[in-house]
């Protein structure tokens, strides 16, 4: 099976898959807060575009709805909300320092190869022509996790989390042409609620520990607590 | 016939060692007798190697020495022949270089006899290693090589640092030797005998085959200087006299490669692709770290020693690819990778010896080994400068020189990774090839630095400014090696045709189409896939050069005027204003900072008003991280264990007798 | 025979047309920045003037310094000899594949950096040191692009790659898209354009190429300048003819060759506009930001190779 044998629309889907992967890398490398929100919005738009494309190619009208939902939620609403949040928190121009950025990107490339290795047996089961994209969507999920591991800033962690969700959704769309509508709606709603909750949560932790650095939450561990109490007693 | 030449080479080397015993009374024996004998030995080994490679025969004979049940067997096949040729050519060049080089030792208190004796033994050992046909002779020759080179490293033993380097070398050589011995032990157990023929027939289980591979990989890898087992190499190679450094870096490391190929591809035979992945990864790491460390050295010979680690890494990278291809049932591609590895082995032997001889020439003429004190040597030592330039261009892999041809073949082998079934391997090999590209570009940076700082610019010290005139023999030796670099680069087909017999013998498949398009074209896979014509490249460059020269010198072109260099209007430029070796490497040091341990100390004094800097001193030390990461923990552990064991040492004679007594009892019990 | 003749014609176009591409970019930039543009013949006048001028050599310049301009120029001409500009399947294409082409560029770099160190001024050393450090990062990216192309077309010969891409027709390949982006970044870095280096100035602390050739004058300087212009042309031809191979002459008829020349002019002109636009929009980077920029190029090229392996070939 070679790309030359695919139809133009299928090639488009592959191209979009590659672009989604690229946005994941961009998210991982991007250190500016506003820019990474924009990249995240682009990722959502790409996923929505792929969904619409698949709806058109395979004549699955319900996917148009999913596409519209994804577009509205992931490409417009959530970035807008994050944008507003960042403005309210006053960290628009925050530049996060990532430790050893090139090492992280290398690890990310290794993760892509790894997910390809893992996805090979699954791909053999799926009969759709776009099955190669499963590896890509798995890589997007893993890269999202890597982003959550490597970032300290809470907002970037949320972006990582959302891009994991993008990866899952993308996998569902390209491999099985979408999940049942109920599940899809449920997930969308969940993500929406999560986003709102995160927003509230950020304001709260900022108020209580005066930072959005999640490493500061270490202080809440029990041993540290005991130590600080002891220090206070002395 | 060929085997007579090979044995003659051994005898001549031994003879050179014998006559050198007289050198402590008559120092000139070394120049007039020992080195000519070495030259004979080198020439004989080269002839033998070419004869065997030419007709592809396998020659076997038995020496009338050895154990009663195991006489020493000698076998020369095409693989041995290649390495005989390598040893032969470099030995010949060193033998011609040597007389001029050791001349200055004749008036000092240096033990010349020791130098001659151990050089002869060293070469004898190497020759016997590649000719051995049983593990017994192999190990004896191997230890002969290691031990005699230890004494050569210790030649300048008056300095404590050199003694330390020598001891480290001896230690590592023996740990490596032990691993090789154990590897042979595994093979001998299954093959029921120490002769290589028995080992070849050994029915190994996959697990034991992997154990044998791991042991030999560690053993030979240690000798070859793979990261992280390389720590001895940059300590030991630079402190030996330069012609010995050439032999050690140029040839001894290759003998380790020979051992690795012999055991893996010939004796074990049935390779697993996983081994290839190990060799590939370790090889690419060695290549990259080797060149990064080389870039930061200010000692010319140390720089060359680290660059040897890099090249050994490239060779192992290609060998790893060969193992991967052979292990996954693609012998044709395996043959390309193997030929690439062997070609690079040959090339590295030639150009690294050339560079070490050049470095030796500089050291002898200027008594400086530190790049920071050199400069402007091209106008002072024009021959050395020219030959060193050819060496640098070869090692930096510039077409049409020989280093390029072998790296090009390596890349071609890597490009065929698309044929592999395993998707991860398909992704891994391009990545290692990209690391190879990075290594190549850094090697270029490294040798631009070495050449630019040593040979160009203004001299940075008095002795360098007054460097003059090199002995003819030394010039000739460098010229010979430089010529081989050019010839092997411009006519890679000839070399590839000779090397092609080796994969044919080991795996039964050779390069079908490499040279089918005639002597002008090298087409390793197929003519449509990739082609390279080194002769046309050379002709093209020369013709364009001539045309450009003719075009830019019309009749009546104005002559050249000399003037001072642009100094921004601040008066003459002094030698201290040039970029130094340290400053040249600074951008890369900053970008790859975590790779090295760097200690930097900057002191600045300002004048009384605090406005102008009146004095600035900058000290910097770059050290190898492998020490802190690997060697020091091991050393601590060994010391700890030794302290524990030392409790056994009581000083009481009766306690010792009791130890013997109990040992005897135990042994008797075991035997019964 | 026609093949060799055509190869020579193509080489002549390459060598003589190289200054035109540079001045075209310069003119578009002037237009964008509301400046008066120099005439299209200006670079030829400059070269001519330099060739007529007397050479002033630094007092301690060695033989290598005098040889280097010719070697650098010869290396670039040889590289141009093997890059298809208007036609493919020329006999010269077999002399060298893409890897050898990289080797030719390396010869040029080797000698230009050595020449920079020869006189022993701080400027030259600085330029050389930066040049070799930065190009070390461009090399793996370039190789990854070559790998992607070679895996796609099963060949490293430029001609065969282009032939394959023409034969297959329009296929949307994610790998080639990434490879193109990576290649563009590498090309900008290798030819010393903004934002990596600025060819327009001499006295800027971040300069690289100009610092190395600071001591050259007269015909030597002309050779060096011309070689730099050729290098830009080579990378331009690589970018447009690999990724947009349409219009290249595949047979040696007059019509095909005329179409080839026209297509080449149009494609290079468009590329020149893109280059001028990006140079107008972007500011020059700090030297130590360049490795990050080239890492991005490597990442793009790596993604290209990976997406070829994962997406474009089935098991």
Characterise this structure:
The complex is a heterotrimer of chains A (234), B (672) and C (315). Chain A has 234 residues and is mainly alpha-helical. Helices cover 79% and strands 0% of the residues of chain A. Chain A has helices at 8-29, 33-58, 61-89, 101-125, 133-150, 154-176, 181-209, 222-233. The longest helix of chain A has 29 residues, at 61-89. Chain B is mainly α and 672 residues long. Chain B is 68% helix and 6% strand. A two-stranded antiparallel ribbon of chain B has the order 1-2. A two-stranded antiparallel sheet of chain B has the order 4-5. In chain B, helix 5 runs antiparallel to helix 6 (160-191) and helix 13 (331-366) packs antiparallel against helix 15. Chain C is mostly helical and 315 residues long. Chain C is built from eleven helices and one strand; from the N terminus they run ααβααααααααα. In chain C, helix 2 runs antiparallel to helix 9 and helix 3 runs parallel beside helix 9. Classes of the chains: A mainly alpha (234), B mainly alpha (672), C mainly alpha (315). Chains B and C meet through helix 16, helix 17, helix 22, strand 3 and helix 24 of B and strand 1, helix 3, helix 4, helix 5 and helix 9 of C.
């Amino acid at each position: 099976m070679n790309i030359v044998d695919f139809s133009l629309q299928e090639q488009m889907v592959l191209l979009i898959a590659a672009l989604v992967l690229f946005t994941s890398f961009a998210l991982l490398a991007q250190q500016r807060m506003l820019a990474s929100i924009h990249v995240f919005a682009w990722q959502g738009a790409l996923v929505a575009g792929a969904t619409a494309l698949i709806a058109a190619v395979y004549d699955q009208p319900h996917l148009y709805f999913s596409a519209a939902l994804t577009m509205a939620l992931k490409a417009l609403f959530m970035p807008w909300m994050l944008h507003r949040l960042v403005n309210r928190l006053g960290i628009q121009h925050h530049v996060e320092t990532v430790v050893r950025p090139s090492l992280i990107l290398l690890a990310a490339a290794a993760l892509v190869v790894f997910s390809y290795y893992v996805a090979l047996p699954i791909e053999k089961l799926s009969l759709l022509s776009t099955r190669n994209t499963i590896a890509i969507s798995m890589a997007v999920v893993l890269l999202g996790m890597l982003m959550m591991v490597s970032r300290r800033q809470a907002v970037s962690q949320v972006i990582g989390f959302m891009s994991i969700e993008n990866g899952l959704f993308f996998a569902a769309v390209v491999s099985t042409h979408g999940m049942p509508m109920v599940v899809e709606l449920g997930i969308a709603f969940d993500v929406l609620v999560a986003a709102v909750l995160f927003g509230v949560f950020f304001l709260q932790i900022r108020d209580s520990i005066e930072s959005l650095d999640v490493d500061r939450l270490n202080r809440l561990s029990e041993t540290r607590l005991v130590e600080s109490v002891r220090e206070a007693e002395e | 016939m060929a085997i007579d030449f090979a044995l003659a080479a051994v005898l001549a080397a031994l003879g050179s060692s014998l006559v050198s015993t007289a050198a402590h009374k008559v120092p000139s024996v070394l120049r007039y007798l020992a080195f000519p004998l070495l030259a004979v030995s080198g020439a004989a080994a080269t002839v033998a190697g070419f004869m065997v490679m030419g007709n592809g025969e396998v020659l076997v004979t038995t020496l009338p020495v050895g154990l009663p049940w195991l006489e020493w067997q000698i076998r020369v096949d095409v693989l041995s022949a290649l390495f005989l040729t390598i040893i032969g050519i470099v030995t010949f060049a060193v033998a011609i270089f040597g007389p001029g080089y050791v001349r200055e030792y004749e008036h000092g208190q240096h033990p010349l006899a020791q130098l001659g004796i151990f050089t002869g033994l060293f070469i004898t050992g190497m020759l016997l290693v590649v000719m051995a046909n049983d593990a017994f002779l192999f190990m004896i020759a191997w230890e002969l090589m290691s031990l005699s080179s230890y004494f050569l490293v210790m030649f300048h033993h008056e300095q404590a640092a050199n003694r330390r380097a020598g001891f480290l070398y001896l230690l590592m050589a023996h740990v490596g030797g032990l691993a090789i011995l154990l590897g042979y032990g595994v093979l001998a157990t299954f093959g029921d005998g120490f002769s290589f023929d028995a080992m070849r027939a050994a029915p190994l289980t996959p697990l034991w085959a992997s154990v044998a591979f791991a042991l030999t990989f560690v053993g030979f890898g240690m000798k070859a200087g793979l990261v992280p087992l390389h720590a001895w190499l940059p300590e030991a190679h630079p402190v030996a006299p330069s012609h010995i450094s050439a032999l050690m870096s140029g040839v001894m490391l290759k003998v380790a490669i020979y051992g690795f190929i012999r055991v893996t591809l010939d004796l074990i035979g049935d390779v697993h692709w996983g081994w290839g992945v190990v060799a590939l990864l370790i090889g690419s790491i060695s290549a990259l770290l080797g060149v990064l460390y080389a870039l930061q050295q200010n000692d010319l010979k140390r720089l060359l020693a680290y660059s040897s680690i890099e090249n050994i890494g490239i060779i192992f990278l290609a060998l790893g690819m060969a193992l991967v291809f052979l292990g996954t049932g693609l012998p044709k591609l395996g043959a390309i990778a193997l030929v690439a590895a062997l070609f690079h082995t040959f090339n590295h032997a030639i150009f690294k010896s050339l560079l070490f001889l050049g470095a030796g020439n500089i050291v002898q003429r200027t008594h400086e080994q530190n790049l920071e004190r050199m400069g402007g040597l091209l106008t002072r030592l024009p021959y050395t400068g020219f030959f060193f330039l050819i060496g640098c261009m070869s090692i930096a892999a510039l077409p049409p020189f020989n280093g390029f041809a072998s790296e090009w073949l390596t890349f071609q082998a890597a490009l065929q990774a698309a044929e592999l079934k395993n998707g991860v391997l398909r992704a891994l090999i391009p990545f290692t090839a990209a690391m190879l590209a990075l290594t190549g570009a850094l090697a270029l940076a490294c040798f631009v630095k070495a050449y630019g700082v040593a040979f160009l610019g203004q001299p940075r010290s008095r002795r360098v400014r007054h460097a003059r005139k090199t002995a003819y023999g030394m010039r000739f030796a460098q010229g010979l090696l430089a010529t081989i670099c050019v010839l092997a680069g411009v006519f890679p087909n000839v070399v590839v045709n000779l090397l092609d017999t080796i994969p044919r013998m080991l795996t039964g498949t050779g390069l079908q189409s490499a040279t089918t398009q005639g002597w002008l074209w090298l087409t390793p896979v197929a003519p449509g896939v990739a082609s390279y014509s080194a002769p046309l490249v050379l002709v093209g460059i020369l013709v364009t050069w001539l045309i450009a020269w003719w075009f830019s010198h019309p009749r009546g072109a104005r002559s050249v005027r000399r003037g001072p260099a642009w100094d921004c209007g601040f008066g003459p430029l002094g030698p201290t204003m040039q970029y130094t070796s340290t400053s040249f490497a600074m951008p890369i040091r900053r970008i790859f900072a975590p790779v090295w341990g760097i200690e930097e100390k900057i002191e600045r004094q300002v004048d009384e008003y605090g406005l102008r800097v009146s004095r600035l001193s900058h000290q910097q030390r770059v050290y190898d991280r492998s020490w802190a990461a690997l060697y020091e923990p091991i050393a601590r552990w060994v010391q700890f264990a030794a302290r524990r064991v030392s409790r056994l040492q009581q000083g009481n004679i009766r306690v010792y007798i009791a130890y013997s007594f109990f040992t005897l009892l135990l042994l008797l019990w075991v035997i019964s | 025979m026609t093949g060799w003749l055509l190869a020579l014609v193509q080489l002549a176009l390459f060598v003589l047309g190289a200054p035109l591409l540079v001045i075209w970019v310069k003119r578009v930039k002037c237009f964008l920045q509301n400046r008066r543009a120099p005439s299209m013949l200006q670079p030829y006048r400059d070269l001519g003037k330099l060739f007529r001028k007397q050479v002033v050599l630094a007092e301690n310049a060695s033989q290598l310094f005098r040889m280097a301009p010719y070697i650098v120029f010869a290396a670039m001409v040889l590289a141009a000899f093997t890059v298809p500009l208007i036609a493919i399947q020329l006999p010269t294409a077999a002399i060298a594949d893409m890897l050898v082409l990289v080797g030719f560029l390396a010869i040029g770099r080797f000698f230009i950096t050595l020449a920079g160190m020869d006189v022993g001024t701080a400027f030259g050393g600085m330029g050389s040191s930066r040049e070799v450090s930065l190009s070390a990062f461009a090399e793996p990216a370039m190789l990854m692009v070559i790998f992607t192309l070679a895996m796609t077309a099963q060949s490293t010969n430029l001609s065969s790659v282009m032939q394959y891409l023409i034969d297959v027709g329009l296929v949307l390949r994610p790998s080639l898209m990434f490879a193109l982006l990576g290649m563009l970044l590498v090309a900008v870095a290798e030819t010393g354009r903004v934002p990596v280096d600025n060819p327009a100035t001499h006295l800027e602390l971040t300069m690289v190429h100009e610092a190395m050739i600071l001591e050259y004058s007269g015909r030597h300087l002309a050779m060096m300048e011309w070689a730099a212009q050729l290098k830009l042309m080579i990378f331009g031809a690589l970018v447009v003819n690999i990724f947009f191979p349409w219009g290249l002459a595949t047979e040696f008829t007059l019509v095909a060759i005329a179409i080839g020349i026209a297509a080449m002019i149009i494609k290079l002109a468009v590329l020149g506009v893109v280059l001028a636009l990006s140079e107008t929009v972007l500011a020059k980077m700090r030297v130590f930001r360049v490795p990050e920029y080239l890492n991005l190029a490597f990442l793009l090229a790596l993604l290209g190779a990976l997406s070829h392996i994962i997406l474009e070939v089935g098991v």
